[in-house]
From TrEMBL:
InterPro entries: Cytosolic_carboxypeptidase, Peptidase_M14. It comes from Pelecanoides urinatrix. GO terms for molecular function: metallocarboxypeptidase activity; zinc ion binding. CDD domains: M14_AGBL4_like. GO terms for biological process: proteolysis. This is CBPC6 carboxypeptidase. Pfam families: Peptidase_M14.
Length: 249
């Protein structure tokens, strides 16, 4: 039967959200967050249905499977920190990056596809809460637009901190997915590193740290997924009169 999904109609432009995780094998919380995003997107939740109708999600949940298998903390089987090799990944030494980058470039060159978001999920060993890194642009308006998604996420997730979210062009980070793809893609694309603490998030006062659990990481993933609806409602891709959506904390 013909699909109701807007994005599957013949000739329709596809709006793509590309998510990658676990490029650093020791950062296990990133897998739980990614799991939360996937579980939500394939669920029967009314928000998930709307998202599936309007967007295409491409998810690579584990960019460093050999490093994970070996129990490495940061490197691949070959001893590379893969998140410093996006600029020129080798099909032999960095095969997962090479494959994902080729796919992203193919999509970028396809006039029928608009790669709207690239989000790479990590975990952080010293900071609290969830937060994001974004890119710095000379264009003030583009810079402001880039802040919209993390601000919306902050409203949906009590453990996400906009105050810890930062935008940088640190030379050390030049080979990361966020920085490289932020330079490659045009100004309608948003590239972020999404970080979450290994330990806890802080609610209220400084002494109220709540330890993270696997479920809490997955919940943050679900909140990331639902934030796309808020973002696209603001940008009127999705008509407003949807069923009222209960805020599930």
């Amino acid at each position: 039967p013909p699909s109701a999904a807007v994005n599957l109609r013949p000739g329709a432009e596809q709006k793509v959200v590309f998510i990658t995780a676990r490029v650093h094998p020791g950062e296990t919380p990133s897998s739980f967050m990614c799991q939360g995003i996937i579980d939500f997107l394939v669920s029967q939740h009314p928000i998930a249905k709307v998202l599936r109708d309007h967007l295409v999600f491409k998810i690579a949940p584990m960019l460093n499977p050999d490093g994970v298998y070996l129990g490495n903390y940061r490197c691949s089987l070959m001893g590379f920190d893969l998140n410093r090799h996006w600029a020129n990944p080798s099909p032999w030494a960095h095969p997962t990056l090479h494959g994902v980058k080729q796919l992203i470039i193919e999509m970028y060159n396809n006039p029928k596809i608009n790669l709207e978001f690239y989000i790479d999920i990590h975990a952080h060993s010293t900071m609290m809460n969830g937060f994001m890194y974004g890119n710095i642009f000379e264009d003030e308006e583009r810079f402001q637009r880039q802040a919209v998604f993390p601000k919306l996420l902050c409203q949906n997730a009590e453990d996400f901190s906009y105050s810890s979210t930062s935008f940088n062009r640190d030379a050390v980070k030049a080979g990361t997915g966020r920085r490289f793809l932020g330079g490659l893609l045009n100004d309608t694309s948003y590239c972020y590193t999404l970080e979450v603490s290994f330990y806890s998030y802080i609610l209220g006062g400084p002494n109220s740290a709540v330890p993270y659990t696997e479920e809490a990481y997955m919940k943050l993933g679900r909140n990331v997924a639902r934030t796309f609806l808020d973002y696209y409602r603001l940008n009127s891709l999705v008509e407003r009169p949807l069923a009222p959506t209960p805020k599930t904390r």
